[in-house]
């Protein structure tokens, strides 16, 4: 009796599909910047984004030998406050819902989302190092049954269609084509689901990239989009903005404090210059899937 071998499943699409994606993944796989790790060590929430709100000036006072420790704790408070602002804009989320953290970094915002809403959260990153670290943190906190991180490309995650009530990008959109990204988000969002992005974007009014914005691009191996590109790509993919918040003024104190710390990387001056000259904005957009 002759048997026909079962057809094998097609191989999964590679996570890293372009030379640029490979270079970005390589950057984040090797990244061990103290400004990310030392802040996360404060309470085990490791973020890869900036902060919001006024800092407590008293952290600059007191004993010199503990000054840097106070600054680091305050910077971490500001970056966790930023994540809270993002989560505030997801709308009503119930424990039975599912959320997606696109470009999750080391996973801090996902863990905060699970703690707040009690729901399942998936994170995706093209950095295998970040994914492994983030899953380790979820296990340490005992939430790995609800919070899971995946080595996947946020432009084509392979995750289910219309399965997510909320999706966010927290400072990760500058690495991808916005039309491709929002098409994938629209596929994954349930009807009426909410998408939130916090990002730095160049100011269309001032025209082109300023020198300061170009220095930020170079530092992070990214490609900052103009503000208008977000709204054009959303409109083309059934994402209707419900809230648009200019967070520029609220993030400047974070950068001013960071410049005074031992963790300063040299990119603080381009950020402050770009924000203050008006060539760069820190923007939150919350949009509904229709």
Automatic annotation (TrEMBL):
Pfam families: Methyltransf_25 (PF13649). InterPro entries: Erg6_SMT_methyltransf, GPPMT_Stmyces, Methyltransf_25, SAM-dependent_MTases_sf. The keyword Methyltransferase applies. GO terms for molecular function: magnesium ion binding; S-adenosyl-L-methionine binding; S-adenosylmethionine-dependent methyltransferase activity. CDD domains: AdoMet_MTases. GO terms for biological process: methylation. Keywords: Methyltransferase, Transferase. Residues 100-193 form the Methyltransferase domain. This is SAM-dependent methyltransferase. It comes from Streptomyces chattanoogensis. The lineage of its organism: Bacteria, Bacillati, Actinomycetota, Actinomycetes, Kitasatosporales.
């Amino acid at each position: 009796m002759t048997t026909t071998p079962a057809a094998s499943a097609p191989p999964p699409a590679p996570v890293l599909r372009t030379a640029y994606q490979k270079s970005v993944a390589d950057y984040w796989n090797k990244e061990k910047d103290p400004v990310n790790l030392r802040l996360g060590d404060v309470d085990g929430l490791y973020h890869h984004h900036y902060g919001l709100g006024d800092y407590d000036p008293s952290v600059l006072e007191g004993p010199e030998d503990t000054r840097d420790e106070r600054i680091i704790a305050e910077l971490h408070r500001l970056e966790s406050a930023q994540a809270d602002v993002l989560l505030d804009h997801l709308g009503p989320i119930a424990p039975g819902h599912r959320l997606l953290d696109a470009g999750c970094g080391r996973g801090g915002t996902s863990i905060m989302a699970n703690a707040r809403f009690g729901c399942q959260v998936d994170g995706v990153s093209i950095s295998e190092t970040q994914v492994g670290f983030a899953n380790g943190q979820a296990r340490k906190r005992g939430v790995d049954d609800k919070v899971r991180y995946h080595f996947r490309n946020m432009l084509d995650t392979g995750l289910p269609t219309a399965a997510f009530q909320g999706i966010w990008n927290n400072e990760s959109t500058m690495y991808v084509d916005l039309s491709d990204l929002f098409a994938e988000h629209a596929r994954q969002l349930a009807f009426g689901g909410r998408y939130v992005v916090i990002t730095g974007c160049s100011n269309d009014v001032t025209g082109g990239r300023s020198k300061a914005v170009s220095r930020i691009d170079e530092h992070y191996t990214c490609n900052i989009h103009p503000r208008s590109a977000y709204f054009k790509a959303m409109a083309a993919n059934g994402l209707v903005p419900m809230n648009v918040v200019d967070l520029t003024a609220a993030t400047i104190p974070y950068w001013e404090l960071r410049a005074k710390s031992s963790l300063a990387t040299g990119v603080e001056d381009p950020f402050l210059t770009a924000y203050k000259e008006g060539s760069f904005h820190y923007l939150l957009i919350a949009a509904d899937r229709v």
